[in-house]
Design goal:
There is one protein chain. The protein is rod-shaped, with a radius of gyration of 27 Å. It contains seven helices and no strands. It has two domains: 71 residues; 65 residues. Helix content is 75%, strand content 0%.
């Protein structure tokens, strides 16, 4: 009898150990997935910041040229375009607003996709960064996918 009980006890201990190992594996996998998501989020944020800095630098360079200063003097008090707020803004209306703003600012249409990306947030920004480079550089394609 004792031999059977010890055998059962060993089986139970082995099964418990197996379940503990499986649970630890699942915890590690979940932690790895969470770390990977955090890394993707940080990468998106860094890319967004990089583009914003590039736009700021471009604006500073444009502002430092005499002919730009003269042509923009009437726009000194022009309003700035706010970031897309997905919980508040209708995307189609925002894109129409962006197009009008870009036209008013005399931005070249071939650069609109890059400018727009600086104003995107959350899901729209994530969608933009998942686009292939050739598509992401064309406003028409970005507008269709966002």
């Amino acid at each position: 009898m004792k031999g059977r009980q010890k055998g059962k006890q060993r089986e139970t201990e082995a099964e418990t150990k197996k379940l503990e190992v499986e649970a630890e594996d699942k915890r590690i996998e979940a932690q790895r997935a969470q770390t990977e998501l955090e890394l993707q989020r940080r990468t998106l944020e860094m890319n967004h910041e990089k583009e914003m800095k590039a736009l700021d630098l471009q604006k500073q360079q444009q502002a430092s040229t005499p002919e730009t200063n003269q042509s923009n003097s009437s726009r000194a008090s022009a309003p700035k375009l706010p970031f897309l707020n997905e919980s508040r803004d209708d995307l189609d209306a925002y894109l129409e607003r962006f197009e009008r703003f870009a036209t008013f600012q005399n931005w070249p249409q071939d650069e609109w996709a890059t400018y727009l990306s600086a104003f995107l947030t959350r899901k729209a920004l994530e969608t933009y960064y998942r686009m292939p480079s050739q598509t992401a550089g064309t406003y028409k394609h970005v507008k269709q996918l966002c």
